[in-house]
Specification:
- It is a peripheral membrane protein.
- The structure is a single chain.
- The chain is an all-alpha fold.
- The chain has a domain of 98 residues: Cytochrome c oxidase, subunit Va/VI (Serine Threonine Protein Phosphatase 5, Tetratricopeptide repeat), CATH 1.25.40.
- The relative contact order is 0.09.
- About 9% of the residues have low confidence.
Length: 149
């Protein structure tokens, strides 16, 4: 009972805070001092483009980002894609795209196309297909809707 009430209260608070202020709040909670969005993005871009980074560290950075209450910026998404491609892990790159799409939440109809528009040149350069090109956006065994018959 308490878990349900706490969940509803958390949802109500998240709805009133908004994306940008929650991003700053998440950064403050992690580092104890205020960090601008640009510095945050640069830090993760630098992390993913480090020399000698391995697959485990890339996964850790991606999981840390996806665990925060924010949608990664296109520059950070591109840096993660380049890192995954550098260690030759295309499955990780596709999962990264899928995780970023899920982070869009209820704004998926507007935010995800914007992200795709910004990162499409990088996807083409690296040879990484989108989730939609692979058909992962639709369930494999889905039945036709009765309204489409």
């Amino acid at each position: 009972m308490l878990r349900i009430t706490a969940g509803k209260l958390g949802s109500a608070i998240r709805g009133t805070i908004g994306v940008t202020s929650s991003r700053v709040a998440a950064v403050r909670a992690l580092h104890g001092s205020e960090e601008s969005a640009e510095d945050f993005d640069k830090r993760y871009e630098k992390y993913f483009s480090r020399e000698g980074i391995d697959g485990w560290e890339i996964r850790k950075g991606m999981n840390d980002l996806l665990g925060m209450d924010l949608v990664p910026s296109p520059k950070v998404i591109e840096a993660g894609l380049r890192g995954a491609r550098r260690v030759n892990d295309i499955a990780l790159a596709i999962r990264w795209l899928e995780g970023c799409k899920d982070k869009c939440g209820d704004q998926k109809a507007t935010l995800y196309p914007y992200l795709l528009e910004k990162i499409t040149p990088t996807l083409k350069e690296l040879g990484i297909p989108t989730i939609e090109e692979l058909g992962y956006d639709k369930p494999e065994l889905a039945l036709k809707s009765v309204y489409d018959l």
